[in-house]
Design brief:
The protein is mostly helical. Helices cover 55% and strands 5% of the residues. It is built from seven helices and two strands. A two-stranded antiparallel ribbon has the order 1-2. β1 and β2 form a beta hairpin. α5 packs antiparallel against α6. The longest helix has 32 residues. It is globular.
Length: 163
């Protein structure tokens, strides 16, 4: 997908042409499936859904929902799998704290060594880890600020009308 089309898919925002060349990967905050139709064009929507639906697949066929293997997965799907895992590991969960860089990298490399994640994608993430997280912070700051504002407004309205 040349041309730098910006795509928002489920958990990740990335530029497909950059990712396919393996020079950078930018993962983002968890969000609903949103596709920038102005840039991507309606004809590409099924392609993006196919990418999003495969984010829990694994190259060894152990993932879900279809138990796809490496040769059945596109490069974009393999990128999303790694990005999804990075996002899950670096963010706080109700049951654990965010994981530090060293732990995230160790988990990614272990998964790649067991053929669960594509080695080439993991290598790009490991080599560019600090830049990726820096870009994530920059790219998501405005969205997070809007979310926090909406959340405060919702709380105010809820209190006012006893919702």
């Amino acid at each position: 997908m040349p041309g730098g089309k910006t795509v928002f898919v489920c958990i990740i925002r990335f530029k497909l042409d950059i990712c396919v060349r393996g020079t950078a990967l930018v993962c983002g905050q968890r969000a609903a499936v949103i596709i920038d139709r102005k840039r991507a064009g309606h004809q590409h929507i099924p392609f993006f859904y196919d990418i999003a639906l495969a984010h829990h697949e694994r190259c060894d066929g152990s993932g879900y929902p279809k138990k796809l293997t490496d040769n059945q997965l596109s490069t974009e799907q393999k990128i999303l799998q790694v990005a999804d895992m990075v996002v899950a590991l670096v963010h706080k969960r109700s049951y654990r704290k965010p994981m530090p860089k060293e732990k995230v990298i160790a988990i990614l490399e272990e998964k790649a060594s067991k053929n669960k994640l594509k080695r080439q994608v993991v290598s790009v993430v490991v080599q560019s880890y600090d830049r990726i997280l820096s870009l994530v912070t920059e790219e998501t700051a405005q969205v997070l600020q809007m979310y926090e504002t909406l959340n405060r407004q919702y709380e105010t309205i809820s209190r006012k009308y006893n919702i």
